[in-house]
Amino acid sequence: MAGLRMPPVSSLRPTLPFLLSQSSFLSNFLYSQTRPFPLSPPAPSTTLLPQSFSSSSFLKPSTHQHLNHASVDPFYLSCCMPDRRLRIAVLLSGGVDSSVALRLLHLAGHDCTAFYLKIWFQEDFENFWSECPWEEDLNYAKAVCDQVDIPLEVVHLTDEYWKNVVAYIIEEYRCGRTPNPDVLCNTRIKFGAFMEAINSMEFDYVASGHYANVIHPSLTKTNKPSVLELSKDLVKDQTYFLSHLSQAQLKRLVFPLGCIPKDEVRKLAAQFDLPNKNRKDSQGICFLGKIKFSEFVARHIGEMEGVILEAETGDFLGTHRGFWFYTIGQRQGLRLPGGPWYVVEKDVRNNVVFASRNYFSLDKRRRSFRVGSLRWLSGFHPEETSQLRCKIRHGPGFYSCSVTIELGGDDSGDVAVVHLSEDDQGLAAGQFAAFYKGSTCIGSGVILESWDAKGFPVCERAIELARLENKSKLGKPVKIKVKPDTPTKDCNQRDGTNITERSIDAGVHVTI
Question: Where is each tRNA-specific 2-thiouridylase MnmA-like C-terminal domain found (predicted)?
Answer without folding.
Answer: 367-447
